[in-house]
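Entry
Fold in C-alpha cell form

___
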Amino acid sequence: MKNKNFSLIEVLLATVILSAGAVLYSKISAQSANMVYEGESQWGRAHLKSLACEYYLLWGADAPEPVELLPEDYSASCELIDEHELLEQSEDQTEGRWTLKKYWVQLYYKDEVIDETYVSKFLPVELVQ
C-alpha cells in the first residue's frame, strides 16, 4: 500500500480556509450581538416612553414627574398643546364642552431628550381652563 502524506501547500491552504471561516463566523456573531443590544435598547426606550404617556394621560399634563415609574437617571415631562388644525371641527361637533389637546411627552436620560411622542386627546373644557 502506498502511504500518501499531505504536502505543505495543502496544509497551508486548509489552514487559510479554516481561518477565513472562523473570522467570518466571529464577525457575524459580533454583528448579531450588536443588533440584539440595539433592539433591546430601542424596546426599553419605547417601554419607558409608553409608561410616561400612560401616566400623564391618567393624571394630567400638570402631574408631578413619575419618578417611581422610571429607573434612576431617567425622567419625563409633559406639555399640553392646542390642536389648532382640528380644533374648529372638534368644537363644532362637541358643542364647546370638549376641546382637543395634544400631550407632548418627552423622555430624558441624564437631562438629555432621548425620545418624544405626541398624543391627541379630547378633554372637558373645564379641565383645561
About this structure: The chain has a mean pLDDT of 86. Residues 8-128 form one domain. The two ends are 102 Å apart (CA to CA). The chain has one domain: 8-128.
